[in-house]
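Researcher: Please predict.
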Amino acid sequence: MSTTMSITETKSIPFILHFTSKPAIRAKPRNKSRMLRRRTPDSSLSYHLRTLYLFMASDLKTLLLPHLIFGIIGSISPAIVPSAGSLSLATILLRAIRVALWITINLLPFTIANQRLPRAIHEDAINKPWRPIPAGRLSPAQARELMLTGYVVAAAASAVLGGMRSYVAVLALAFCYNSLGGSDVSGSVRNLMNVAFYMCAMVGTIEVAAGGRNVAFSGTAWAWFALIGAVVLTTVHIQDLPDQEGDAARGRRTIPLEIGDVNARWSVVLLDLVWSIAAPMFWRKGAAGFVLPLGLAGVVAVRLFRNRSVKEDKVTLMIWSLWMMSLYFLPL
């Protein structure tokens, strides 16, 4: 995760072997005093809505759609929820709206908590200077007030829409991840906490999609959740590749900084391929079930070594999210 409610050519081996161990090229940070300068207050609704969007912008692209798909697919798959039945397209669309609303409302306070502390502001001044606090759209104190309000709204939304168990779990995880510095301890701890966030989101989105009730999951479902957790644990550090400069500046320990940029890239390449085979095998898919996961894993592999820059790593992260979504469709 940058977060989360948090969370990641095979044919051209000779080409890959010619790469050195130099890290991806990093853009020079802008003048920090300029970035941290407060902007002239704007009371317009559009200004405040954009501020809320900027808090979540990075995570909406990699979390909202994947978790939305996971929740909808899980709720209509009898292999995941034995009581699931056939639904009309209109019902599925209504469920998708509920899930998207729940994810967004729960994501906002978590992203604020992840961005309001001094070390996070210092990192964002380097990696993401457009975020609300380093951009001067509001102060850390104002962000704290907004965060607390967001948690209250998220609690109310979870009471109405469902997913209250996941909300409470994410609240506890957010405190450990941000306030206790769990995201900075080590790369492995950071990945483990991302797994916990993903697991909470998986259960929560399915419950919301199923109508807000506590769902009785099948044994296959829990095995599937465990497999997806293993996928996240071993590949989610792809999200740390474009942020290495800021992470190093704040003293955060991530997999790329601990084992090296090239080794981190190789680990994602190899394990993406492993999971692209293991996940379809879990669901006993035919040859067609392997095509999309392996194809997207191949694209990720090529880009991780051919397109190595902050900007390109962000694009590769988006493709990794598409790869994750290709796995989420397998229960159908």
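Model: The CA atoms of residues 80 and 219 lie 8 Å apart.
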